[in-house]
Amino acid sequence: MLIGLLLLFIIAIMITWSSKKDVPVVPTATSSIVMALGIFIQGAWQQLSGYSPKSIWTSLLVIITVGIWLYLLVSYIGSIRRGRLYQDHLADPVMRFATGTWVAGTSTLLIAIHASFNHFILNEIIRIIAILNIGLWLVVLYVMCRGWYQILHQSQIHRVHGIILLSTVSTQSIVLLLHQIFKIDNLLWLHQTLIIIGLIFYIWSVMLIVYRYWQHRHPIVEEWTDPNCILYGALAITGAAVQTVHAWSDGAIIYLWWITWIILIIVEVIEVVRAIRRIQAKGWIQGISIYNTAQWTRLFTLGMFYFFTLRIYPLYQQYTESRWALEMYRWILTGGSWIISILLVIEIGLAVQALWHHAQRKSANTSNMP
To answer: What's 110's domain CATH number?
Structure first.
């Protein structure tokens, strides 16, 4: 009873706040911030800092992420109350796939909360929100299937990119959520079914992306987009899900890691070439120092690959006979946490700068009003 009343109180506050006209409409993919921070806390942060999930500093990061999640939730509820959910987030058949960040972000955050706080009432609230998130995933899957239909029916394949791979990311996040929150260990068939569904989404999405770039006459670097980093991020979360629930053999998991690593290298080489060309054309500031919500997706994909790498360390030691490969793996664990942390600090700086400029423009526009 107490849990239900507490949830109703929180929901009432959010609905009341969302009714205000000044609540901004955030981009659909903004929940990638929660995805990035959630997986950073579980992977690179704990490895780099040495703090446990229940330490005060880790708990503080989780609380900050919860605050961001609540703010985004208020914005989404505001779109519903204003009757603009479709126009704000679902009208574009390609960008509607960004709703997958809502599911994956919530799953990642709930797992982080569950690891950092151990309280009966809070655990019950987490389970209730997790059930709601599973329901949201089913709705999002329907939205995505409609998106695929419209993309094909309206001949919009030339617009597809890595964002459609959020179908895989959101699905595999549910596997991790079921295992970590509900401790469902005796339903391996359910985990395997969800993992296979996610892989089917991955193969289908990759086929569309490859077809898009194959048909286009411009160089691939010129047409490349930031969300294409999900090409390896979706495989990384698949690997993490497979390893967590022990759905595949140890050898198959290692093979999946190598495939993910190779795709990461290919994608990031393209990104480096793309960044060099942008700097040459627009300079350092306009070329690579402008805030973009999609940049959080890269932080999530890198963080997810690091998390996957961290989880299979015992397997890698057991099945890898090459000393060179083992040294490379250890370098990824050591240097990867620093790289991700530095990129996170840079991204936070760009986000704060963007918010500052937005506030200044808003203040200037208000002062110029008659």
So the answer is: 1.50.10.150
